[in-house]
Design the sequence.
């Protein structure tokens, strides 16, 4: 039986590395909320102000209800994807939003990139999001298990 990562990534050319599985889970959770045109759903200032506030006030503080329109981890994923360079962002959108269920070959042809380019951009984007989660996840108390 395939695990959730293997099932979602069954067309991937490279096996998903263990430390990136939480990122894959996060992006799968984010994908139904993502805009299909590739624009961030929530303004970047919202996430940045949240990071600044949490850093200044302490991540463990709780208080008034959040004014965020989505779960914090989904909003964070949207912000993190928006930080990616254009091709990495396009590959993430193809993989998780616009072309789900397509073969890698079809996705990469749509973007006009080689197999190596697809693999490099997809895994590079996941690594960047992983780094952002490691950097800001603890500050924001994200419910993402980062190793």
Sequence:
């Amino acid at each position: 039986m395939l695990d959730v990562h293997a099932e979602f990534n069954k067309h991937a050319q490279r096996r998903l590395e263990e430390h990136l599985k939480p990122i894959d889970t996060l992006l799968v959770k984010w994908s139904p909320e993502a805009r299909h045109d590739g624009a961030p759903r929530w303004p970047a200032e919202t996430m940045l102000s949240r990071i600044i506030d949490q850093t200044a006030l302490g991540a463990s503080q709780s208080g008034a209800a959040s004014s965020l329109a989505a779960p914090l981890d989904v909003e964070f994923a949207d912000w993190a994807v928006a930080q990616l360079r254009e091709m990495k962002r396009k590959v993430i959108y193809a993989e998780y939003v616009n072309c789900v269920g397509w073969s890698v070959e079809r996705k990469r042809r749509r973007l006009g990139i080689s197999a190596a380019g697809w693999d490099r951009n997809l895994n590079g984007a996941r690594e960047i999001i992983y780094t952002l989660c490691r950097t800001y996840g603890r500050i924001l108390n994200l419910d993402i298990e980062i190793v």
In short: The chain has one domain: 12-56+69-140.
